[in-house]
Amino acid sequence: MPELPEVETIVQGLKIAVTQQKIEQVKIYDPKVAKMLAGEDITGRRIINIRRRGKYIIFELNKGLALIVHLRMSGRLLYQQHEPQSNRWVRTVIKLDNGFLIFQDRRRLGVMEASCFSDLNCRLGVEPLSPEFNSDYLVQKLAVSKRPIKVFLMDQTIIAGIGNIYAQEILFAAGIHPQRQAVSLSNNEIERLVEAIKNVLMLAIRHQGTTISDFQNADAIEGNFQNLLKVYGRENEPCLVCQTPIKRIKQQGRSTYFCERCQK
DNA sequence: CCGCCAGCCTGAAGGC
DNA sequence: TGCCTTCAGGCTGGCG
User: Fold this and answer.
1) Taking the domains of chain A in order of start, what are their residue ranges?
2) Does domain A4-123 sit in CATH 3.40.50.300?
3) Nearest-CA residue to the C1' of C12?
4) CA proximity to A55, closest of A110, A99, A94
5) pLDDT tens per residue across span A121-135
6) In sequence order, what are the beta bridge partners of A114?
7) CA distances from residue A132 to A54, A93, A102, A203 in whole angstroms, order as listed
């Protein structure tokens, strides 16, 4: 169930392993995936490159096609040398020259499809770690939004890759209350927010992402950013800065944890 | 146009 | 033990 840092970790882990390998066979065990892959036959194509866009994993294949994977809440992508024991969570097994790429998904919300990449790209906002994401960009987007800032940060058409955990960690780092209206942020707060977004995401990538319940990277290695979480999952525990108990509220049906003293 | 919410799915955990 | 509710790192379509 990954956000940007977890997806980035998976992509980096797969890069050397799968680049230039040929897809020899595709075994689909889930009718939903079968439907998603029905349009194009990817067998016989070569993986030219693998990269991340937002929370999407993109395998660029030859002849202009891409295999696009989104893990949603419970998906995993693994690479191993031997064919996996099939179990009820294995949705797809892709046999490459030298190993097996396995798509597992407990809740079956994930997406695996073969298509061209351009329509996906124009649905997504900027990459938060790119130079195009800066306070000028954010000022312009915040000015027209009355939504709570936490909900705003999770809007993939504005910034691609931030989800429920990192939105909260970012707002804590920036000292901004999650219920503040987007449009109400001052220039100073916007600067802090841009800094926090870049810093939190980069730090999380350095720590190979957050592992709670079942995130693993492509080699089934766990990340360790969960040890550095300051608010997420810490209801009633003391704030690491001021000792005030961390509060939990709901925003659009999802939990938000924050410190009401540090975040104004 | 904008913001919100149910629905998509399944499994784990907690309350009674 | 069993049943019921709630919750889970996401996104989409449809509604007001």
Assistant:
1) 4-123, 135-258
2) no
3) A109
4) A110
5) 889 999 999 999 999
6) A67
7) 14, 37, 34, 20
| Among A3, A6, A8, A169, the one annotated catalytic | A3
Nucleotide at minimal C1' distance from the A154 CA: C10
pLDDT grade for A117, boundaries at 50, 70 and 90:
confident
**Cα A91 from chain centre:** 20
Q: Which of A6, A8, A52, A55 is catalytic?
A: A55
**Sequential DSSP letters for A59-120:** EEESTT-EEEEE-TTTEEEEEESSPPPP-TTEEEEEEESS-EEEEEESSS--EEEEE-SHHH
Distance of alpha carbon A81 from alpha carbon A155, whole angstroms: 37
Active site residue A35: no
Yes or no: is domain A135-258 CATH 1.10.8.50?
yes
Q: Please, which residues have CB within 8 angstroms of residue A150's CB and are 6 or more apart in sequence?
A: A167, A168, A171, A178, A179, A251, A256
A95 is catalytic: no
Rounded Cα distance, A126 and A59, in Å: 20
Largest CA distance in chain A: 58
- Per residue in A185-213, pLDDT (tens digit) is 999 999 999 999 999 999 999 999 998 87
Residue A220: pLDDT band (50, 70, 90) is: low
